[in-house]
Design goal:
Layout: E1 12-16, H1 23-29, E2 32-33, E3 37-39, E4 55-57, E5 61-65, E6 78-82, E7 91-95, E8 98-99, E9 107-116, E10 121-129, E11 135-144, E12 151-160, E13 165-174, E14 189-196, E15 200-207, E16 213-224, E17 227-228, E18 235-238, E19 242-251, E20 257-267, H2 274-308, E21 310-313, H3 316-332, H4 359-371, H5 374-385, H6 388-399, H7 422-425, H8 431-446, H9 451-470, E22 472-474, E23 479-481, H10 499-522, H11 524-534, H12 538-549, E24 555-556, E25 561-562, H13 586-589, H14 592-597, H15 606-612, H16 619-630, H17 640-650, H18 654-665, H19 682-696, E26 700-702, E27 705-708, E28 718-725, E29 728-735, E30 739-744, E31 749-753, E32 756-760, E33 764-766
Helix pairs in contact: 3-19, 4-5, 4-8, 4-19, 5-8, 5-9, 6-9, 8-9, 8-10, 9-10, 9-11, 9-12, 10-11, 10-12, 10-15, 17-18, 17-19, 18-19
Protein name: Maltose phosphorylase
GO molecular function: carbohydrate binding; glycosyltransferase activity; hydrolase activity, hydrolyzing O-glycosyl compounds
GO biological process, one term: carbohydrate metabolic process
């Protein structure tokens, strides 16, 4: 834990007291989104101290040219990144002819932020004394509509406390924005058109290179004590990329002046005419009005929480942590559009470019499968199917593979590889395995096999071809090996025979071959169509199988464990407990050379394999491998603690499981990795959900049935969650005395609890 200023609360994230040192962290933590767009919790008014401005639109990106010291063949030409979108929230404010800026106020008191996760809004309030002596009370509420997902709403209230005040509002929309992480400090937005109306304005701009067109809009209403005073702007200032209106008002001491601002984006992904689309959005939002929009927001979030909430009794910090994670996941991805995916930072920052990683398949899909309609998870799979041609092109053009072998990109927006670190881009090839595993996991959980003959089998074939060509035969070992890779543990690069990579490669080939046979038997027309399309022969499949059947796995017979890779035991095996805390995190304290030579593990690696393929190993094997590798794991990846929590629970190491749960659930709230100001760790938040449902709840799917091995941390009085399993809603509630299973509906559901079958109906109690 590196920060502890967020107040414990079951349903809200709360900060009290103004501290300029916390501003950027809070901008991340109080971010809001609605699946179509999102923004950091930047102040609407001017703030002259350090801040990280960020608003983002789903699917809008820019190919920023790769910047390296020298070029190597195979480097991706660019690093795609989500763009800091035009600013629609800005409202410059003058009070008695002085600019409102918390950095220059004489005093700021009673400062409070609240992110209300239950109802889906962000609120900021404070009292301030300006240099001119005017005292004011301010309350600002902001939300991004789930129903009208191209619009956001701000209500900014100002009450003068010690004198009458002339208040000037200067709302604006501005396309002259830049990214924090631009490689070449280029401009990403080209202004096209500015349109001004009575109380509304529009700036249309398009991205350079990718030519996404976006209209950023605003509509302003000025109120006194809650009543619209129908004032028009006194002046309108505009440039090629910015429009700013000025509204002057006078309000008596103790009375409240307000501006309501509707704003947002319409994009060419969804509109042929973005300006006409923006005008239509404004018309819909204005017709509803602020109160109705807020009420609709509350009701929309109530529906989300009805299915996705996890309750924890007796541990407020744990409860706050899981709800924060679930809230951010639902803000980031709604599942409506198969062109979209989930970036590691979501809408909270620019690190990782907002692109798609293997995090989606390995960690996020289980959450969306269980808490949404299965179509949402299927859309995530379809995203990869639609990019199969690009994956084949990536393997061919960048690595020299042939005959339809597919390497999915490590980082992507549109299917092209856009990650520019060689040791990650072309060595962390295990991401192919996660994409194949997600297809298996989807079928295992939903029972929907149709995706495989329709789309998934082509993906599996491309991936199997890649592994067949990527492996090489070692005469010394008389087995197939995979050389020069980086496993999930990115603290080792260019190593040979990473256990996880080799294991998932073998599994991918075996699974692809099995599905080819199943589709041939049950979907002969699809089988014929696919094999003709990809030119696959029985002889080629046999060649694959030779590699899978003879894959090499490094082991230590003495320790009874799989080795993370060849030579792991040659390292100086000093456990983490003996590492000086002043040296943590090592990725910020040590040279990369020292990190690579150390035994320290960034995230679950061998144990990631044990997590995916738990049924392939005995409990004793898991115990030996877990205890060995946990002692060297520094968990400096957000994706690590959840896997360790799940496995610790499976091994009845409940104190450890609880500690890891707190770390994953409060990773950002408590800033464990000293980086939250860059944005929140969105994709790992799904691992927090897994830590409870699969860890403490012990949920597994085996032979088309749900299995549970429920346990409860001693720190909790009870917990509950819901899952949608094959279109049946099951609620599970666990306390120290009993576990209850409740089915929502008339149809019974057979489940396995602690190895024994039971019939779950409207209410089933297990003592």
């Amino acid at each position: 834990m590196n920060q502890d200023y967020i107040k414990p609360d079951n349903w809200s994230i709360i900060e009290e007291g103004f501290d300029a040192e916390r501003v950027k962290s809070s901008e991340s933590l109080f971010s809001i989104g609605n699946g179509a767009m999102g923004q950091r919790a930047n102040f609407e008014e001017t703030y002259s101290a350090e801040t990280f401005q960020g608003s983002y639109i789903a699917g809008i990106y820019y190919p920023d040219k790769t910047k390296v010291g020298w070029w190597k063949n195979g480097y991706p030409k660019y690093f795609a990144k989500v763009l800091n979108a035009p600013n629609w929230i800005g409202i410059d404010i003058e009070i008695n002819e002085e600019n409102l800026d918390l950095n220059t106020c004489t005093e700021v008191r009673n400062f409070r932020r609240e992110l209300n996760m239950k109802e889906g809004w962000y609120n900021r309030s404070f009292e301030a004394i300006l240099k001119n002596g005017t005292e004011i009370s301010v309350n600002v509420r902001r939300f991004l509509s789930l129903d009208l997902d191209e619009s956001g709403i701000i209500k900014y209230d100002i009450t003068p406390l010690n004198k009458d005040a002339k208040i000037v509002y200067k709302p604006y929309v501005d396309a002259g924005v830049t990214n924090e992480d631009a490689n070449w400090e280029e401009k990403f937005w080209e202004p096209l058109e500015v349109k001004k109306g009575t109380n509304e304005a529009f700036v249309t701009a398009q991205t350079f290179k990718t030519h996404f067109k976006v209209t950023t809009f605003m509509h302003n209403t000025i109120l006194a004590n809650g009543e619209n005073i129908n004032v028009s702007p006194s002046t309108i200032d505009s440039t090629t990329d910015k429009v700013q209106y000025t509204y002057g008002t006078i309000i008596a001491k103790g009375q409240t002046s307000s501006i309501q601002k509707i704003g947002g984006y319409t994009v060419s992904l969804n509109h042929e005419n973005t300006l006409a689309g923006a005008e239509k959005v404004i018309k819909s939002a204005v017709a509803l009005g602020y109160d109705a929009l807020l009420q609709n927001q509350i009701e929309a979030w109530a529906k989300i929480w009805e299915m996705s909430d996890i309750t924890i009794e007796g541990d407020v910090k744990a409860q706050q942590g899981i709800r924060f994670n679930i809230f951010q996941l639902n803000q980031t991805y709604s599942g409506k559009d198969s062109r979209l995916n989930i970036g590691p930072k979501g809408f909270t920052g620019e690190k990782y470019g907002g692109s798609t990683y293997w995090d989606t398949e390995a960690y996020c899909i289980p959450f969306y499968m269980a808490t949404k309609d299965q179509q949402v998870a299927r859309n995530l799979l379809t995203y990869r199917y639609n990019q199969l041609d690009k994956a084949i092109e990536n393997a061919k053009d960048n690595l020299g593979f042939k005959d339809g072998a597919a390497l999915y990109p490590m980082v992507t927006m549109n299917g092209e590889e856009c990650h520019n670190e060689w040791e990650i881009t072309h060595e962390e090839i295990h991401r192919n395995g996660a994409i194949a595993f997600a297809i298996y996991n989807y079928y295992r959980y939903t029972g929907d096999y149709s995706y495989i003959p329709e789309k998934g089998l082509e993906v599996l074939i491309g991936i199997a071809r890649f592994w067949h060509q990527r492996a090489s035969f070692s005469k010394d070992k008389n087995q197939y090996v995979i050389l020069g890779v980086t496993g999930p543990n990115e603290y080792e690069n260019n190593i040979n025979n990473n256990f996880y990579t080799n294991y998932i490669a073998k599994w991918c080939i075996d699974f692809a071959a099995e599905q080819i046979e199943k589709v041939a038997s049950e979907y002969p027309a699809d089988h014929k169509r696919i094999l003709e399309k990809v030119s696959l022969s029985a002889n080629e499949i046999q060649e694959w199988k030779k590699v899978a059947d003879d894959m090499y796995f490094p082991i230590s017979k003495e320790l009874g464990i799989y080795l993370q890779q060849d030579g792991f035991l040659d390292k100086d095996l000093v456990p983490v407990k003996d590492l000086d805390k002043s040296q943590r995190p090592i990725n910020q304290k040590w040279s990369w050379d020292r990190v690579l030579r150390s035994p320290y593990i960034k995230q679950a690696d061998v144990l990631q394999g044990f997590y995916f393929f738990e049924d392939h190993f005995s409990k004793e094997e898991l115990k030996r491998n877990f205890e060995f590798y946990e002692s060297f794991t520094v968990h400096e990846s957000s994706l690590s603690p959840c896997v360790h929590s799940i496995q610790a629970a499976a091994l009845d190491k409940m104190d450890m499981a609880y500690t890891f749960y707190l770390r994953t659930s409060r990773l950002d709230l408590d800033d464990y990795n000293k980086e939250v100001e860059e944005g929140c760790h969105i994709t790992s938040m799904a691992g927090t959900w897994m830590s409870i449902v699969e860890g403490f709840g012990g949920m597994r799917v085996k032979n088309d049935q749900l299995h549970f091995f429920p346990k409860i941390p001693k720190e909790w009085n009870g917990y509950s969650f819901k899952i949608n399993f094959r279109n049946q809603i099951l609620k599970v509630a666990v306390d120290h005395n009993e576990t209850t299973f409740t089915v929502d509906g008339e149809k019974d559901l057979t489940i396995i609890v602690n190895g024994k079958p039971i019939i779950a109906s409207k209410f089933v109690q297990i003592n």
